[in-house]
Design a protein that fits this description.
elongated; 18 strands; signal; Sag-related sequence srs53c; five-stranded mixed β-sheet; four-stranded mixed β-sheet; SRS_dom_sf; 5 helices; Immunoglobulin-like; SRS_dom; disordered C terminus
Length: 339
């Protein structure tokens, strides 16, 4: 009998015994590229900056015409304050009157005397405006996320009585933040679900670089965490961006807390009194997946079935055999199929 007769059966035997090697060799011959490599995940950095620290108080010194705002000051994210002065020619007082500390303001640019309202009615948190010498300081308890970008107003009145001239000041809350941006009393939630992944967040305060234990209600404690599974990097010092990464997942899902601290923040009740405020960054690190237990009563074919069982299934053709057929075509004795 012609020895070439046994060649196809040798191909099948090899595919059953060493299918991985056969598929690899076959893919080399027919140009099949293996795929499916795991790629590291990374939270995209939206690169949005927080409001910068206020410097000298803004000066309102130009006469307002119509209802156009002359001067705008923005509440600072780190101090929760904004400051302005009434410039020369506009030292005739303010509307509302801030001769004594008050929580009042104008609700719109018209700023008519009868339309003054409380700051808290506009932004939803406690606030106070006070004037010392010629500087007006507005202090908030916090910047509510739902009110970001909103404004309230004050008039600096002309020094000449009866002139009716004024300079209009808008006090504006800082704009919206990205989900991974810290701010006073804010909580940022991050998750790491696979090995060799990272997540970014922004801290405009001072970051405490060691994590803390998280309670069951997802609040941070003062207890230092003993599980050092995360690596912290300062990837963008100018933009306040920090990166947390995990090399290997823990056995069980773990939550850790990092604190972005804001020191010396004035209080509304007494602006000369300063306190420490924080933003909590809660990081959830997924645990390793555990394989599902094998069912003793299951009759389904396991993915690890032996080759003979796989071939016993009607209509089933081993991928190794299919792939190896490409090799066999190249290696088959000439004229075999014509015999």
């Amino acid at each position: 009998m012609d020895p070439a007769y046994f060649f196809p059966w040798a191909v099948v035997a090899l595919a059953v015994i060493i299918p991985d090697a056969i598929v690899t060799e076959a893919s080399r011959h027919v140009g099949v590229a293996a795929s499916g490599a795991s790629m590291p995940l990374k939270v995209l950095d939206k690169n949005q900056s927080l409001q910068s620290r206020q410097g000298e108080p803004a000066e309102c010194k130009v006469k307002t015409t119509g209802e156009a705002t002359t001067t705008t000051v923005t509440i600072d994210e780190k101090t929760l304050q904004a400051k302005f002065t009434c410039g020369a020619g506009f030292t005739g007082g303010t509307v509302p009157d801030l001769a004594t500390p008050a929580d009042t303001c104008c609700k719109d640019q018209a700023c008519n005397g009868g339309e003054k309202v409380t700051i808290s009615s506009i932004i939803g948190v406690d606030a106070k405006a006070e004037k010392r010498e010629n500087t007006v300081t507005v202090t908030l308890a916090k910047v509510p996320d739902g009110k970001r970008g909103e404004a309230f107003y004050y008039k600096c009145l002309a020094a000449a009585r009866g002139a009716g001239d004024y300079c209009l000041v808008a006090v504006r809350l800082p704009g919206p933040l990205e989900n991974n941006d810290c701010a006073i009393d804010r909580t940022v939630a991050l998750s790491l679900s696979a090995p060799e992944t990272t997540a970014d967040f922004k801290c405009s305060g001072t970051l405490e670089k060691s994590p803390f234990v998280v309670k069951t209600d997802d609040s941070c404690t003062e207890e230092p965490a003993k599980n050092a599974i995360l690596k912290l990097e300062e990837t963008d010092p100018v933009g306040d961006t920090k990166t947390l990464g995990v090399a290997e997942l823990p056995d069980t899902t773990t939550k850790l807390c990092y604190k972005c601290v804001y020191e010396e923040v004035p209080t509304v009740q007494n602006t000369t009194k300063k306190e420490r405020r924080t933003c909590n960054v809660i990081v959830t690190v997924a645990g390793k997946e555990k394989p599902a237990p094998d069912s003793e009563t299951s009759t389904s074919t396991s993915s690890t079935s032996s080759a003979p069982d796989a071939y016993a299934t009607p209509g089933f053709v081993s991928p190794a055999v299919v792939a190896f057929s490409a090799v066999a075509v190249n290696w088959w004795p000439a004229g075999f199929f014509r015999s």
